[in-house]
């Protein structure tokens, strides 16, 4: 049981300069006894309202140095404070606020919400067990307008899809990875590096791009690049929900549409997933 969707904004001030973290937190606990379920005995139950208050107090006292560290702090608090807690799992996701710039100058207290992917993390721990930390990015929407195709696929009497060697590749990414033994990691730096790997593997070199023969190959290329550059990552999962675009037929309008106007296919949409780990 636990408390979901604990939302708050943490404001940190250094002189005139302000820093913000707006997060959503979920905390789930498993107790050493199921007596509240079997007997209606609530003597060991930590109320979910208390769970919410603990999260807010920890944000006030410790701040949020990184999403992962805040999740670790929450797990540590419940494990060290309540002997009846056998397991705790914490999920934290961040609202993507970025500092506003005016003529290249960073503003001291103004921010803009940029929907270029939502950062999240999870931390879970069993009593007398290791602390396990996951991190990730979701709702990251990417598109490239060429250097993508789909050819040579299996065909039978039900196949109507034509082969394409030049198409739009567009989709929404979910990416989640696990760390090994958590030491003094710079979680912010690692997250930014992995996000850069995702963008690089998707797009390719800026002057020419890189051809994608399938959504599956693109997903695997992202994971291979992350594992090659970020040694702290042990296992990585990527899910791509792709959006198809069809060329609009404008013959009845007396026009030739040479791949200039498209309409998105909202549903059904394709999806592919891959999980890759080290030996």
Automatic annotation (TrEMBL):
Q: Which InterPro entries does its entry note?
A: Uricase
Known pathway? Purine metabolism; urate degradation; (S)-allantoin from urate: step 1/3
* Gene Ontology annotations of biological process type: purine nucleobase catabolic process; urate catabolic process
Q: Tell me yes or no: is Oxidoreductase among this UniProt entry's keywords.
A: yes
Enzyme Commission number(s) from the entry: 1.7.3.3
One Gene Ontology cellular component annotation?
peroxisome
Q: Which UniProt keywords apply?
A: Oxidoreductase, Peroxisome, Purine metabolism
Task: Give the top-level enzyme category.
Answer: oxidoreductase
Q: Where does O2 bind?
A: 48, 242
Q: Indicate where this protein is primarily found.
A: other
Q: Which reaction does it catalyse?
A: urate + O2 + H2O = 5-hydroxyisourate + H2O2
The entry lists its GO molecular-function terms as: urate oxidase activity
NCBIfam families, sorted: urate_oxi (TIGR03383)
What job does the chain carry out?
A: Catalyzes the oxidation of uric acid to 5-hydroxyisourate, which is further processed to form (S)-allantoin.
Put simply, this protein is called Uricase
Q: Which organism is the protein's source?
A: Polioptila caerulea
The gene that this protein is the product of is Uox
């Amino acid at each position: 049981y636990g408390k979901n969707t604990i939302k708050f904004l943490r404001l940190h001030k250094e002189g005139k300069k302000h820093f913000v973290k707006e997060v959503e937190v979920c905390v789930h606990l498993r107790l050493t006894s199921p007596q509240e379920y079997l007997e209606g005995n609530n003597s060991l139950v930590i109320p979910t309202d208390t769970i919410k208050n603990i999260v807010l107090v920890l944000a006030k006292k410790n701040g949020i140095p990184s999403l992962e560290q805040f999740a670790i702090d929450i797990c540590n608090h419940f494990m060290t404070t309540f002997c009846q807690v056998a397991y705790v799992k914490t999920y934290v996701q961040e609202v993507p606020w970025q500092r506003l710039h005016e003529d290249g100058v960073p503003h001291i207290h103004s921010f803009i919400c940029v929907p270029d992917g939502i950062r999240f993390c999870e931390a879970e721990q069993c009593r007398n067990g290791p602390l396990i930390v996951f991190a990730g990015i979701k709702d990251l929407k990417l598109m490239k307008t060429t250097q993508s195709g789909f050819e040579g696929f299996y065909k039978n009497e039900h196949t109507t899809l034509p082969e394409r060697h030049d198409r739009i590749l567009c989709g929404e990414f979910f990416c989640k990875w696990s760390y090994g033994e958590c030491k003094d990691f710079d979680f912010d730096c690692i997250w930014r590096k992995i996000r850069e790997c995702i963008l690089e593997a998707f797009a390719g070199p800026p002057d020419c791009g890189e051809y994608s023969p399938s959504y599956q190959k693109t997903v695997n290329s992202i994971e291979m690049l992350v594992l090659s550059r970020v040694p702290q990552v042990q296992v990585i999962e990527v899910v791509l929900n792709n959006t198809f675009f069809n060329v609009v037929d404008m013959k009845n309008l007396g026009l030739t549409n040479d791949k200039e106007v498209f309409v998105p296919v909202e549903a059904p949409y394709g999806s592919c997933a891959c999980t890759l780990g080290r030996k």
